[in-house]
Amino acid sequence: MGLDANQRKQAIDLFRRGAAADFEVAPAVSAFLQTCGPRRQLQQTLLLFLVSLALADHKIEQAEHAALQRIATLMGYGVERLEQL
Fold first, then answer.
1. Cα 18 to the chain's mean position, in Å?
2. Using one digit for the tens of pLDDT, what is the confidence trace for 6-15?
3. Which of 27, 32, 48, 77 would you call most buried, defined as having the most Cβ atoms within 10 angstroms of its Cβ?
């Protein structure tokens, strides 16, 4: 990804926080939406990236699907739109 040592450490820390059982997704999605503003293309890109991650093992587990639905809903996408992606 072309990260320097400090950026790599920060990315690892953020990944660990996001993977924690007590991670609250709503504030993270809210911060993302505030940062990217009304640019739906960025929002869709994030959803596509998350779907790709979920499909890394060639299947989407029920918990992964539920998480994707929650994120899509928080971003203002319907479940139908997520399924299209």
1. 10
2. 988 888 888 8
3. 77
pLDDT band, residue 1 (cuts 50/70/90): low
**74, 30 Cβ separation under 8 angstroms:** yes
CB 25 within 8 A of CB 75: no
pLDDT per residue over 56-77, tens digit each? 889 999 988 999 999 999 999 9
Q: What is the dihedral of CA 34, 42, 46, 36, to 10 degrees?
A: -10
Angle (nearest 5°) at CA 30 between 28 and 31: 65
The residue assigned the tokens 């060639």 is: 58
Instruction: Give the residue from 63, 71, 73 showing the smallest Cα distance to 25.
Output: 71
Question: Beta strands of the chain (E only): which ranges?
Answer: none
Region of 58 on the Ramachandran plot (φ > 0 left; ψ -120 to 50 alpha; else beta): left
